[in-house]
Known about the structure:
By secondary structure, the chain is of the alpha/beta class. It has two domains: about 140 residues, Gingipain r, domain 1 (Rossmann fold, 3-Layer(aba) Sandwich), CATH 3.40.50.10390; about 140 residues, Rossmann fold, CATH 3.40.50.1460. It contains seven helices and 13 strands. The chain has a five-stranded parallel β-sheet with strand order 8-7-9-12-13, with helices on both faces. Helix 5 links the parallel strand 7 and strand 8. Helix 1 packs parallel to helix 4 and helix 2 crosses helix 3. The protein is globular, with a radius of gyration of 21 Å. It starts with about 30 loop residues before the first strand and ends in a 14-residue tail after the last strand.
Amino acid sequence: xxxxxxxxxxxxxxxxxxxxxxxxxxxxxxxxxxxxxxxxxxxxxxxxxxxxxxxxxxxxxxxxxxxxxxxxxxxxxxxxxxxxxxxxxxxxxxxxxxxxxxxxxxxxxxxxxxxxxxxxxxxxxxxxxxxxxxxxxxxxxxxxxxxxxxxxxxxxxxxxxxxxxxxxxxxxxxxxxxxxxxxxxxxxxxxxxxxxxxxxxxxxxxxxxxxxxxxxxxxxxxxxxxxxxxxxxxxxxxxxxxxxxxxxxxxxxxxxxxxxxxxxxxxxxxxxxxxxxxxxxxxxxxxxxxxxxxxxxxxxxxxxxxxxxxxxxxxxxxxxxxxxx
Length: 325
């Protein structure tokens, strides 16, 4: 599965690049690259300083205006951005940058439409950053050369909310017991002989987690002793804390579960600072073109509390409850 895990500003008389670096200079040496639009550069500066002082990552902020000034062989902006990523990761001085953060939603930094197979496909599930992770100098497109993260910010406030969470989280060096908690939340799939299908997948996943982690779970199945709802999940995270929240079941743009089980409206009830968690969608999440950040995944990410990271498949996902390895 390849897929996991846009307004350009042009100035007629004056263009400000984020840093005085020539991108084709092969003597450049950076560990971490933030790619964003010009209007977001200043908002990214505190995060850059944090990465350099706390994480010891030599960090560069590059805005799209500079990329397009030096990499312009294609008529599509995403191909030019990919050219830059591939060039920096291949020709810059070692240790070359391996990790890149795209700070902006698709209206600001576009990505690629994923061709799944013939037939209809929802536009929101057909876009992926995967191609950015594959060097154009690598013929094997099934292998990722770079780590690509997407912060689908629509505004400076989005960036500030998220960066504040990360800075708080990474600056705390004390290991707390809540960091050993996993929380699984399963849809109860009603169908022909597969009523407990998602529950079986959940159990299979819990069986392969490290022994030092404490696995906790709720299911939509009202006949189960582990029955729970959105209030159960929110209360667990607010009181006990969890390092990860696994959402096992179907999802739409604004909700998890068909009934639904967790919605955008539930996000405001999280009060878990500084116990931020990673949200993992096992099935697809409608995440692609969320330009208003009103979807479930974006709302979790940009809320003052809630989640610090999202892992979400793109497109069709095949689950095998008895074949999880």
